[in-house]
Amino acid sequence: MNPQEETIWEGIRRKDGRVFEQYYKEQFKTLFLAAYTYVRDAGLAEEIVNDVFLRIWERSGVIVIEISLKAYLYRAVINRSLNELDKIRRRGRHHSDDRFPEERGFEERAMEDNELKVRLYRAIDELPEQCQKVFKMSRFEELKQQEIADRLGISIKTVKNHITYALKQLKQVLANRDSLLIGMLIIIYEIFRRGH
What H or E segment, with its residue span, contains residue 163? Predict the structure, then answer.
C-alpha cells in the first residue's frame, strides 16, 4: 500500500467513521461501475459495493491487505459480482428453454468471459509470491519499474523478469482457447496496466 492508503486503512481499522465514509464516497463510483459491468443491474451493483464495504468495516481487524486497498476492494467487488451472476444463472436454468436461442448464446458468451476473468485472477494468485507482488504493484498500483525495484529492494531487471514470467503464465491460462479469448487477455492486461 502507498502511504496514503496505509493512513486510510489504519483509520478504518481504528473504526474512524469519517475516514471510512470519505473513502467510501471516493471509491463508490468506480466500484459501482465495475459491479454494474458484470451484473447489469444498478440496484444489485449498489448492493454488492455496499456489502463489500460493510465487510471491510466489520472485519478490518482480521483482513490482511498487503498490496493495495483499492485493488483489494476492486477484486472483492468483482468476485462478489461473479458469485451473484452464478446464482442468477443457477436460478434461471429451468427458465432457459423459454428464451430465444440468440439470447441464450449471448448469456453463454458473457459467462465464458466471466469464467475467463476468474481463471486469470486465480492464475495471478498462483504466481510465486514475489512475482505476484511485482505484477500487482505494476498492474494494480500503476507503479513504474524503478518504483517497484526501490520498494522491494530488487533490481529493475528482476522486476522485468517477474512481469515477463507473470504474463507468460497468464497466457498459458488461455493456451487451449481460441483467438477471441486471446483478445480477452489483451483487454484484461490493459485493464491491469491502467490499474482499473
Answer: helix 156-173
Q: Which residues contact 120 (CB under 8 A, 6 or more apart)?
A: 170, 173, 185, 188
Q: Which residues contact 104 (CB under 8 A, 6 or more apart)?
A: 96
Non-local CB neighbours of 46 within 8 Å, separated by 6+ positions: 32, 35
Instruction: List pLDDT tens digits, range 124-179.
Output: 778 888 998 898 888 777 788 999 999 999 999 999 999 889 888 877 765 655 44
What is the reported pTM?
A: 0.51
- Confidence (pLDDT) at 174: 58
Burial class (CB in 10 A: 0-12, 13-18, 19+), 192: buried
**Closest of 138, 107, 129, 124 to residue 169, by C-alpha:** 124
CA nearest to 23, candidates 9, 38, 39 = 9
pLDDT at site 155: 94
Q: Which three cell numbers stand for residue 52?
A: 463489500
